[in-house]
Structures are given as C-alpha cells and as structure tokens.
Design a protein that fits this description.
- This protein is of the alpha/beta class.
- It contains 16 helices and 14 strands.
- It has a six-stranded parallel sheet, sandwiched between helices. Strands 11-10-9-12-13-14 form a six-stranded parallel sheet.
- 45% of the residues are buried.
Length: 446
C-alpha cells in the first residue's frame, strides 16, 4: 500500500519505518528541511533503539522516501497519517496548531479518495475538527472529493517504540465507516499474525482511550510514589510493599516502580490535557488532578533530600553534585519534562554546582542548560564524580546499575549516594561505607 506520514518525530518516523518494513511504500513529510536532508543521508535526528538501521535499510531498498513537499507524499497515497506535535499550552490544553495546519493543507491538495488518520495524541473531538477543516478547504476549491477521518492513536514507549509498533498489544481504530475499518485492518494485518489485535470503536471513544491509557499508567506511578513517601515516614521498605501488592494479579508489577516521577512527551501532557478536557465539559477530574500534583511534588523530592542532607554541613551552596542521568528515562535522549531538570533547578537555585553525565542525552542537555552556568555536562560516566561532594542517580540506565563503587568512593569528597531509582542495595551500600538515600526506604547515614 502507499502511505503518507506527516511528521518525523518519534511517532511519525517509527510508523514510517515500520510500515515500510512490512513492504509498504511510504513517503514521510516534514516542513523542516534540515531534518529531511539528514534523513535522506541516512541519519536520524532522534535516539530510538533499532530505528536507524530500519530507516536506512528501507530507504536504500526504495520503500521509504523523505520530502518537504506534502503534494509529493499525497500523490499516490490512500492512507495519510497525521503525526505532528501537539504540545501543551500554559493552561494544560492541547495546542492543535500543527494538526489544523496539516488538515488545511490536505484539503488544499488532495485530488482523490484519502483516509486521513489522526495518530497524534489529540483531544476528544479532533477528528470532527479535522474533517470540518478539510471539507471547508474543498468547498473553497469548489470540488467534491470523498475522504474519511479516523482516530488511530499510538501506544509507543520511547526506548522500545520499534518493538511496540511491530508487535502491538492492540490497534485502536476509531471510525463509523465499515469500509474504512476493513482497509485499516488490511494495512495492519502483517502486525497481527498471531491473533486479531484490532479493536474498532467510535471515533470519540478511540480519542478517549489514548488519554485513559496514559493517565492510568501515570496514576500507577504517582500511586507507588505516594506509597514510597509514606514508607519513609513509617519505617517501611517500599520494595517489600511493591512485592506484596504486585503479586496480586489484579494489580501486577508493571509501572509500580517508585522513583523521581514520570516525564517525557506523553504522560505529563496527556494528564493535563484530560484534566482540561474534563473541565471543558463540566466534569471534575479529581483523581487525575491528584496524579499530576503528586508527580509535580515527586520530581522535586530528590533535590529536597540533597538540600536536607547538607543542611548540617553548611548547606549546598558552593558544593558540587555529580549527577548520573538526564533523560526522563533510560534508552532515550528525550529530556522533555525530565525530573533531572527539576532537580537541577532546585539545587542550582540554592547555589549548588552540577556535573552531569548521560549516555545519549548529553547534547540535548547542553542545549537546554546552556544558560545555567552552574551546570556542566561531561562525556565520561566517572568524570562528574571526580571531586564532587556526592553522587545522585536520576535515570536508570543499565550502565549505572553495577558501577565501580570503590572508584566512586575514592573520587567523591564524601561517600554519599542519592539514588532516585532504587538501583542499589541498602545493605551493600552500608557495607561499602556509603551514606545512601533512596526512595521509599530508610536512609543509611554513616
């Protein structure tokens, strides 16, 4: 099949690569000419495991093309996937500027039947909005061209997006048109060889499903972080509590890892967007509002622990913290809404210096933090530790799980580790002579 993908971010580029991997002919369109030039040279602009070789392979074999011209992408395509950004506004609502622009251009350009697929995460009612915009442009042109608009939300995890697309748990399709549903079933058939994974529903139900899924996962994260904070107060160990509740099949172990709070491009934005959607229709999303409030507090918690620890030693002003991890989670270079940024803000505002390292997010961090003279981003994992007053682990990269503790202890001024991901054993830290402060567990103070 011939497909046009509009947008080359995480969703668009992954979708383009995976559809072409299954033998489809895909044109990926973006207005950013520098990104398109890089992609045509075989270089991708985001870090996503497994994506670059798939893009290069399918481009070399002629199934995947990149262009800045929407007309080129639309020319032979039946399916047109809108995968553009939908950032949050200051009030938490979703900015549909790019979605509207794409819909306008589609209406100005199409000459035959198209299935326009909203794959971006968008508020309820966006498909109707897109349909109206396209129809308005066709009316201006005084032409009558058949088209359908469907909702097909993505459920990709950054860091495992290729695998998620190739082996989806489900494919949600929101449409009231049986013919359109059948065509999408054919398109997705290669991704569902073991069982039927497509769930067809009303358009608005599909739009709500995406928000409900992400808000459910965010709720689990905020819940276990709240439990972790209670554990610290009452002398319990959140790891034991997690084992106790996770063994209940109604709860399970997924997404109940205590830490520094959720971040990234999806959960924070989608939680706030659902809150705003609820308000717009006269509902009060009390639980979802609490999930957001708990997460906002949790992202500052590790910074506050560091300030409290040094309060009896003259405070953090003038001291240096080594920080491991800057991306919002492992296996991505994405720093959007990363807890590291909140921690850095809290500590540098108090006069502390930060020497940081991340395996892949270093360049993004340098750009984001270039106006903060108290932050240095380094290229080697152990460089920030040398001469620092303490070490904080913020992202759970695998290479941080079993480091050279003897080397760390020798390099630090004080043998202190703040573990925002609970990567290490309290007993091991105590035996090795470290003061150790983690999440939801009693601190080891030596």
């Amino acid at each position: 099949m011939n497909i046009c993908i509009i947008g080359t971010g995480y969703v668009g580029l992954v979708a383009a690569a995976c559809f072409s991997e299954m033998g489809n002919h895909v044109t990926c369109v973006d207005v950013n000419s520098s990104i398109i030039d890089r992609l045509n040279e075989g270089k991708i602009h985001i870090f996503e495991p497994g994506l670059e070789p798939m893009v290069s392979r399918n481009a070399a074999e002629g199934r995947l093309k990149f262009s800045t011209e929407l007309a080129e992408g639309l020319q032979d395509a039946m399916f047109v996937f809108s995968c553009v950004g939908t950032p949050s506004k200051s009030d938490g609502s979703c900015d549909l500027t790019y979605v509207d622009r794409v819909a306008t251009q589609i209406g100005q350009t199409i000459s035959d039947y198209k299935i326009v697929v909203n794959k971006s995460t968008v508020p309820v009612g966006t498909a109707d909005r897109v349909k109206s915009i396209i129809q308005k442009e066709l009316h201006k042109r005084q032409v009558s061209i058949e088209f359908d608009v469907v909702s097909n939300p993505e459920f990709l995890k950054e860091g495992d997006a290729v695998n998620d697309f190739m082996k989806p748990d489900r494919v949600i399709v929101g449409t009231d048109n049986i013919r359109t549903a059948k065509l999408l079933e054919e398109l997705y058939a290669p991704f569902a060889r073991s069982r039927d994974k497509m769930i067809v529903m009303g358009i608005r139900s599909a739009e709500v499903t995406k928000y409900a899924a992400n808000c459910m996962l965010a709720t689990k994260i905020s819940f276990i972080n709240e439990i972790a904070n209670i554990c610290e107060c009452v002398g319990a160990d959140v790891r034991d509590v997690r084992a106790g509740i996770g063994s209940d099949t109604r709860i399970g172990y997924h997404f109940i890892y205590p830490g520094v709070g959720y971040g990234g491009s999806c959960f924070p934005k989608d939680v706030r967007a659902l809150i705003h959607t609820a308000k717009d229709c006269g509902c009060v999303a009390t639980l979802v509002e609490s999930v957001d409030a708990v997460n906002t507090r949790q992202k500052q918690m590790l910074g506050e622990k560091i300030i409290n620890f040094f309060s009896q030693m003259g405070g953090v002003k003038g001291k240096t913290l080594a920080m491991w991890g800057l991306s919002f989670k492992a296996n991505t270079d994405d720093m959007r809404e990363s807890a590291a940024l909140d921690i850095i803000r809290v500590l540098t505002s108090a006069g502390m210096h930060i020497n940081a390292y991340d395996p892949v997010a270093g360049d993004n961090a340098r750009e984001l933090l270039k106006d903060n003279p108290a932050v240095r981003v380094m290229d080697d994992q152990y460089d920030p530790v040398d001469g620092a007053d303490a070490l904080a682990v913020v992202t759970d990269w695998n290479q941080f799980r079993n480091p050279d503790f003897d080397r760390i202890k020798h390099m630090l001024i004080l043998p202190v580790i703040f573990d925002g991901r609970n990567l290490f054993s309290r007993n091991v830290m105590k035996e090795m002579g470290f003061s150790y402060i983690s999440v939801g567990r009693q601190p080891v103070i030596l």
